[in-house]
Model the fold of this input.
Amino acid sequence: MKHESIHPRALRRRKSTETQLNEMSDASLIVAVARYNQDALAEIFRRHGGAVHALAKRVTRDTALAEEVTQELFVRLWNEPERYDSARGTLRTFLLMQAHRRSVDVIRSEEARKRREQNESASIAATSYDIDHEFGDLADREAIRGALEILPQDERRAIELAFYHGLTYREVAQRLEQPEGTVKTRIRTGLKRMNEALVSWKAVET
Done:
């Protein structure tokens, strides 16, 4: 497969453009970025991308998060170059301040996400245990089936999903499209009725 030949004049123009960008100040490069010059953005990244990534990695202690922060900052610079004001400091200082601020935000977001996941896992474990505990005294399936028949439909359906399908309170609530608190109340009220019925039946049998 042949590569397309590049005319020497085109090569000279490319080298000339690169030389011009190398010689431009950061402020001039920002002006060029505002005019949608991608080469100008690439030159800014060449100059400052390493420092931005290094700071983001030092703050987040995570290479992937640091890369995410770095990419986000340069995309934002491309979309909003006017946010940089040369009168308030150098471009590197501006980018590093943005990198530090965004890295801190990312860390807080990650910590909040992990806390939510931990709380959700703990909640699922707790509700699973809670339902197991609720059914602990109802070991006779035949008796349970008979006791279920005396319950109102909403209580019976919730208990069937929890007992026969092994769902947690939250999963039962999602299946029935009801608030979790309502489901808990229905299950506990239904279990109370069932226990009372089972006790009375055992008393009759004896």
